[in-house]
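User: Okay, second chain of the day. Same drill as before: sequence in, structure tokens out.
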Amino acid sequence: MTRDSDRRALVSEGRNPRSTDLDRLSAREIVALMNAEDAGVAAAVGAEAEAIAAAVDRIVAAFRAGGRLIYVGAGTSGRLGVLDASECPPTYSVPPGMVIGLIAGGDQAIRHSVEDAEDDRAQGAADLDSVAVGAADVVVGIAVSGKTPYVVGALEHARAEGAGTVALCCNPGAPVTEIAEIAICPVVGPEVLTGSTRLKSGTAQKMVLNMLSTASMVRIGKSYGNLMVDVAISNAKLARRAAGIVQEATGCTAEEAEAALAASGGKVKLAILMQISGQDAQTAAAALDAAGGVLRDAIATSSTGAP
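Assistant: Same drill. Structure tokens below.
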């Protein structure tokens, strides 16, 4: 249980002077107040841009060396990590094990609160062992307070195993910032509802996680310009999106895009290269492999240039 002295010491747990009469406000006033408070979250995240970029560079290096990105958190923080990890395979066609989300209390904690699980320091280390954490990996410990035992234990164990370590919290000087190599600490201040850190703090964490995964995937060649060229075609909506991406990237017709996708086996990046270069699937695939999967580099080595 958090002692009163601990609660006062945490920025995220303080009492917001702008919402002391929260229970007296109308629905419209509550919405307006929350919106006003949320307006400062982006600036708080922006203040951590250098640390976020350093974390991205570390994650990219891990990916290129065959390592993984592993998120570790409890409660809302853990759920946000699991969410980010689960969205990487369909968005970027990466294997499910390349980005992993671990949450205190296990998968049941994604839907049902397992509040005491966050106090188990040893379980944080054990859960990392369950996925065989190693020196090639990067572990991102997510905890608003920055002192959640489960996350502290995980980061300590990750560091002992030689893995890269990143802390994401909302309280400066928190224990996790002393353990991790890179500390990301957007300070969003007290919540509208005291201690409900799924609000501004959770929003800040979601924004940072979006940046970590998206920027890292872009840096390893998972986009062409701002197009998702490695999206997995798993339903009708994504099939339409894939065809649209091929059209946008190449300037071809819808019929040509569909033909290129069919010839490429549904691989958007390959279809684009085939359409631009005029190469067959096998030749284009070899060109992509030689370019490390970076479409722009593969296009540069083809006989025709990018549109």
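The chain has two domains: 8-219, 236-300.

User: Thanks, on to the next one.
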